[in-house]
Write the structure tokens for this entry.
Amino acid sequence: MGATKSDQFSDQQNEMAMMLKALAHPARVAIVEYLLKVESCICGGIVDHLPLAQATVSQHLRELKNAGVIQGSVEGTAICYCLNEKALGKLKNYFGKLESKLKSKCC
Amino acid sequence: MGATKSDQFSDQQNEMAMMLKALAHPARVAIVEYLLKVESCICGGIVDHLPLAQATVSQHLRELKNAGVIQGSVEGTAICYCLNEKALGKLKNYFGKLESKLKSKCC
DNA sequence: AATGTTTATCGTAATATTGCAATAAAGAGA
DNA sequence: TCTCTTTATTGCAATATTACGATAAACATT
């Protein structure tokens, strides 16, 4: 025991949980907000902006990338990270639908 | 080490991460979707609907409740769980703002 | 009072996450 | 080539999460 029983839930539920998990840490929220604030694509400087060691930041970036929330690509000299519009769109739609369905009911 | 450095991030970032964390598990996504689908408020029956032991479901419900995503109240005989419209509204707004800011930039 | 039903909590094992120092890898510039 | 800078990876310790059996608590129904 101890491992999540992913196979017991739908693909959609697992996908949503995976994306939400990627954002379920203040450092990763901060990274996304920073990418959004500065340029939406940024080459370098993320580490200096966070109160964490370089190795830790790199790990958080990898998690965001694995979940598809950000994209990273080698641009000549540095590595550039961008927000993934598609993933953020999915999240927006999900909560949008959730809320509109909720409002149509009455408690 | 090992513990999240919450104090290094803003209250807003921590709050958002906390709500997202509450939803960052397929079982908890399934619970929210079930509450939405059936009635938005439901008294009993959640356990039977999930492929997990009763103790585990109870634990997941507690996490959702602690994060403010759902509300639970003793209604006479059973315990009724409802979605918290306010929390879901916050999530919707967050991703809505995120996406609109993103679209106004160009990569 | 005894029984059944439903939900919560405790205790515990398995697994995952968080964080960092150390080190590697890869390219830029001297 | 040697060094500097930047990002990734490895290895490890501390902590958190996930899951469940056992048990408790609260209230029905008999």
